[in-house]
Amino acid sequence: MIDQALSPLADSVTKVAIQLGILDKDGNAFPDPEEITDEYLKNISTKTRAFLVLCSSELEEYIEARCLEFLSQCVKAIGKTAHHNCLHALSIHFRNNIGSLLDGAGYFVDFYASDEQSRRFSKELKGRKNKGDSDPTSDPPVLNKKTLIGRLCNWYREEVVASNHGIGDQNLMNLLVPLGFSRNLVKEECASLCAALQSLAAARGEAAHRAAQSSGWPFKGLPTPLEQQLSLRDAWERWNSVLDSLHELENLLTIDP
Fold first, then answer.
1. Entry pTM
2. Residue-wise DSSP of the chain
3. pLDDT tens for each residue of 80-93
């Protein structure tokens, strides 16, 4: 039974598999032939490669979206444990960014200024600049909790999510660690998912980065026996292993704020 949160992802990949002839119109996987021949492998190579790349793209976008959703939920949970933990973790991860912001942009820290005060400080500063007031004692822009949260969220989106290009277990770690999850915790709580991601990522990497007519085809980088790694059924089972274990990520990100 697929979790309701995973249904859109599962449905999208199922449609792809049906269009590629991996599944029948009812969503059942076609069986592999009893004998795996070179001719069979050549005939399905395009379908296999296409499916591995497309299902990985859907998965990558899903995981990134869930991490962004988790961040949004933490930001909104003001005064709760998740709010503090997530923001503290991001502050540590982006400590160099914060240092550069303070040194280069001339911000000063005031976590006690109200929104009204922050707006007034900025307005006064802008007015002095427009008048050509270069008084070195003028107050620089205010960096308070609200503006810092905005910066942290933008940095996470631009420097972590935007630079993520893969679906392996290390990609998952790179998305979760800045949010405050240790690698040890992810490995323990998402053990099955990490193994399934690595399996799918290995096949996807071969499919996406090696030409079908090159000396490296079939998937020389995958464990033997090769016929088990090249069939349409195998590609579908790799995907299903990930789908069946994605609940571990959902459980990790569904925490009591």
1. 0.84
2. ---GGGHHHHHHHHHHHHHTTSB-TTSPBPPPPSS--HHHHHHHHHHHHHHHHHHHHHHHHHHHHHHHHHHHHHHHSTTSHHHHHHHHHHHHHTHHHHHHHHHHH--EE-TT--HHHHHHHHHHHHHHHHTT---TTS---EE-HHHHHHHHHHHIIIIIITT----SHHHHHHHHGGGT--HHHHHHHTHHHHHHHHHHHHHHHHHHHS-TTSTTTTTTTSPSPHHHHHSHHHHHHHHHHHHHHTHHHHHHH----
3. 999 999 999 999 99
